[in-house]
Amino acid sequence: MKAFEYNMERQIIGKSRKKLWFIVSASFLFWFLFLYFYSEFTVGKKPSTLLGNDFANSENDRESNSAHVPESSYELVTQLPDMGIQMNEETGDVRNDVGKTGPNSNRTRNLESAKNIFHAEDDGFESVDQMVVSVKELDPDDQTHPRDNEGQFVNELVSGSSENREESENEVAPKVDGDKRNPDLPKQSSTENQRGFDESDIDSCLGRYIYVQDLPRRFNEDLLKNCRSLSNWTDMCEFTSNLGLGPHLPNFVKVYSKTGWFGTNQFLLEVIFHNRMKQYGCLTKDPSMASAIFVPYYAGLDVARYLWGSNITMRDSGPLQLVKWLRGKPEWKKMWGRDHFLVAGRITWDFRRLTDGEFDWGSKLMLLPESKNMTILTIESSPWHNNDFAIPYPTYFHPSRDIEVFQWQNRMRRQKRRFLFSFAGAPRPNLQDSIRNEIIEQCRASRRKCKLLECVKGSNKCYKPVFVMKMFQSSVFCLQPPGDSYTRRSAFDSILAGCIPVFFHPGSAYVQYIWHLPKDHNKYSVLIPDFDIKKKNVSIERILHKFPRQKIRAMREEVIRLIPKLIYANPSSRLQNLDDAFDIAIKGVIERVSTIEREMREGKNSSFDYLEELTWKYNLLGTVEGEHEWDRFFARS
Ligand SMILES: *[C@@H]1O[C@H](CO)[C@@H](O)[C@H](O)[C@H]1NC(C)=O
Ligand SMILES: *[C@@H]1O[C@H](CO)[C@@H](O)[C@H](O)[C@H]1NC(C)=O
Ligand SMILES: *[C@@H]1O[C@H](CO)[C@@H](O)[C@H](O)[C@H]1NC(C)=O
Ligand SMILES: *[C@@H]1O[C@H](CO)[C@@H](O)[C@H](O)[C@H]1NC(C)=O
Ligand SMILES: *[C@@H]1O[C@H](CO)[C@@H](O)[C@H](O)[C@H]1NC(C)=O
Ligand SMILES: *[C@@H]1O[C@H](CO)[C@@H](O)[C@H](O)[C@H]1NC(C)=O
């Protein structure tokens, strides 16, 4: 440009060099200012988004600096010649010392002691390069950006795509089905608006801003730094790699897809959620603007260090320090913590110790007066308490792009399913009420129709996600009986595999994941009451056999349609238009907080104006009046 203009000037004007340079610099200045304002206009129009992204990027940098290097992975590989991947989770049961109607403190968690060993394809580094690659893929055709400045390129693309995202949310028509708990309309993409000129997106974050409380590092990052101390049996350092997703799962036997699969530990949700939050499009650094305040405390990782062999003082010290710290912040006073929320990535009974007896199970995090004012997200909530809400367990699938989800869904639609039903799990000989034995017996009796992956000592098949996922992908129905507690991760793994879940208790899903699952449970699952199994007068095979082909196809389609809502996207990027489990959880929290705020303003408290013990019913039906066929499931003697 310089040379061109120089020639032009000389031919046409033919004046002195000084003047020429003046013109050249002036034109440069003009172009500079033009580009500056142009980019300000397009990118900087939405200060909130920029703020959010800056925040996200700086946080990600911090994350990659403190990435955990799994030093031991090579040793482990040599110890384990078959190079399989083992999980300590018995195919998704939370091994817990919890009876069916509440905590039952003294059983040993023997399965947690199952040593788990990893061979990982990848060393677990989460690098900036990786992020650049994945963000680039958002817009492969874009040639207008200088390639020599990757950082800037990423920034611009991220804000571009986020505008696209917010904009498309605006375009979505109001929901017609009236089911507010289930916001499932797809966001439409609008590629022509990639650079975002639409005035309306100035306020698209209004009512959705989240402020992330700036906790001292001892409540989160220090726990990851000292990952060796998190468990005596599990190498949690492996699991904390890749922003909490764990090591990449190699696709040797084509059970997974090429990308997006990780050996994710079910107790890492706190870390995944926190990292997902860094990608949230409506973060604010101004707490007064926020609709909700996120408290990034790793409650489950904290308490797990002290669940075995420590005294209750140790277990409660983290929670007590946390609420003391929170109470001292100006943000607390605004709503007395009712706009605060946190994620406790273990089941609720690990945080609801019944007594202060030295041998009783868990901490009392959820019982503290401050916690009762907060919203606590957890993988299994209490049907009888109203401050905790269940959100999906993490599965092994963490896609970075929408297309990965669509491809997976299509594959699960086409999958050949040889078995009518299947079960992966262990019996519970110590639990009197357990229906596991009966289920295993029935599966064995239906030899051709049922596939059993029994978790017994000596067989490590059921600790390896590859066997479990393969079995679920070959089954029409997947049995999900309660284990030590109502819920299991396995239910989400089975949905991910397009296998229709069969529940035996409404506490296993229907009264739990009320933000994520459709209200009409018959659309996507089967309920066979555990009472009937115990009476030994029902045949699971006969019940499942009765479903007509057409009905099965419709149910499976519903299951497959649920997949995006139940998975946590890879926090190192973000999905373009799909809402994942994180997005839906955020909507749930914000809706709850705004209801509470409205009621506080109007001097009402109807949200809490029912017997707390009936929380399950209120959450399910919006009222606690009248009898319900599930009353007997939740009756407390
Ligand atoms: C739990 O175990 C301890 C020590 O083994 C024992 O003293 C206590 O009675 C047990 N508590 C229950 C509720 O079984
Ligand atoms: C690991 O074992 C030590 C010693 O027995 C114990 O003090 C510590 O609490 C245990 N840690 C966990 C996470 O269980
Ligand atoms: C609990 O355990 C900690 C660490 O082992 C110890 O310092 C403390 O004195 C114990 N507290 C009680 C009440 O036993
Ligand atoms: C919980 O909220 C109520 C108001 O809803 C307030 O009176 C109470 O002090 C709060 N508790 C704490 C510990 O802040
Ligand atoms: C099992 O027995 C109970 C009561 O005895 C009865 O209500 C139920 O219908 C029976 N189920 C089947 C499938 O026979
Ligand atoms: C709600 O308000 C009623 C009356 O105003 C009161 O009796 C009740 O205790 C309140 N409930 C809660 C949970 O604050």
Automatic annotation (TrEMBL):
<keyword id="KW-0812">Transmembrane</keyword>
<dbReference type="InterPro" id="IPR040911">
    <property type="entry name" value="Exostosin_GT47"/>
</dbReference>
<keyword id="KW-0472">Membrane</keyword>
<feature type="region of interest" description="Disordered">
    <location>
        <begin position="90"/>
        <end position="112"/>
    </location>
</feature>
<keyword id="KW-1133">Transmembrane helix</keyword>
<comment type="similarity">
    <text>Belongs to the glycosyltransferase 47 family.</text>
</comment>
<feature type="domain" description="Exostosin GT47">
    <location>
        <begin position="205"/>
        <end position="542"/>
    </location>
</feature>
<protein>
    <submittedName>
        <fullName>Probable xyloglucan galactosyltransferase GT14</fullName>
    </submittedName>
</protein>
<dbReference type="InterPro" id="IPR004263">
    <property type="entry name" value="Exostosin"/>
</dbReference>
<keyword id="KW-0333">Golgi apparatus</keyword>
<dbReference type="GO" id="GO:0000139">
    <property type="term" value="C:Golgi membrane"/>
</dbReference>
<dbReference type="GO" id="GO:0016757">
    <property type="term" value="F:glycosyltransferase activity"/>
</dbReference>
<feature type="region of interest" description="Disordered">
    <location>
        <begin position="159"/>
        <end position="199"/>
    </location>
</feature>
<dbReference type="Pfam" id="PF03016">
    <property type="entry name" value="Exostosin_GT47"/>
</dbReference>
<feature type="transmembrane region" description="Helical">
    <location>
        <begin position="20"/>
        <end position="38"/>
    </location>
</feature>
<keyword id="KW-0808">Transferase</keyword>
<keyword id="KW-0328">Glycosyltransferase</keyword>
<feature type="compositionally biased region" description="Polar residues">
    <location>
        <begin position="102"/>
        <end position="112"/>
    </location>
</feature>
<feature type="compositionally biased region" description="Basic and acidic residues">
    <location>
        <begin position="163"/>
        <end position="184"/>
    </location>
</feature>
<keyword id="KW-0735">Signal-anchor</keyword>
